[in-house]
Structure formats: structure tokens, C-alpha cells
Design brief:
This protein is mainly alpha-helical and 95 residues long. The chain has a domain of 61 residues. The chain has three helices and two strands, in the order ααββα. The radius of gyration is 21 Å and the shape is flat. The termini are far apart.
């Protein structure tokens, strides 16, 4: 806007998925850190869970959990068998 000194022209949006794949190949740092990416997703998940339950929730950012058992149950789900590693029958665990 003419005459407005507070206008900031931002770079166009980056393709984070493509950048991530490129960085896996090149070993360079991605345009978004793991911490920033994870916290962005967590905020969305917190909001979605609160909206689905229809109530206010308190989030403990140190423990990564709610003060509500029903909400905590929505934080994860069982993994599909397709993504589970087969058991190593020869492995022995220390007692």
C-alpha cells in the first residue's frame, strides 16, 4: 500500500514436504525445525480434540497430555498392523 511503511512483503509459501524430502537426500537443515513443526501440529490437535469433546481442556506442555482422561485417550490410536515391525523371536530381553 502506498505510504504505509508497516507493510511486510513475505516470501511465497514454501513446499515443506518437498523441502523435507530434499533435506533427507542432501542432509541440509529444513526450512522448518522439528520443534516448530511439531508445536504447530500439536496446537491443531489440541483444538480438534477440545472441539470434538465440546469442552475446555487444560494442556500440560511438559507432559504432553491433558487434565482429562477422555481427551488423553484421543491423543493416539493403535498402529495399523501394516506399520508394526514383526517380532524378533530370537531376541531375549533382560529381566
Amino acid at each position: 500500500m502506498p505510504g504505509n511503511q508497516n507493510v511486510v512483503i513475505a516470501d511465497p509459501p514454501h513446499d515443506h514436504w518437498l523441502n523435507f524430502i530434499d533435506c533427507v537426500k542432501s542432509r541440509e537443515k529444513p526450512i522448518c525445525s522439528v520443534e516448530v513443526g511439531a508445536s504447530s501440529v500439536i496446537v491443531c490437535q489440541i483444538g480438534t480434540i477440545a472441539m470434538r469433546l465440546g469442552k475446555k481442556l487444560k494442556w500440560d506442555r511438559e507432559k504432553y497430555q491433558f487434565d482429562d482422561a477422555e481427551a488423553n485417550a484421543m491423543l493416539s490410536r493403535p498402529m495399523m498392523r501394516l506399520f508394526l515391525a514383526p517380532p524378533d523371536r530370537n531376541r531375549r530381553f533382560a529381566a
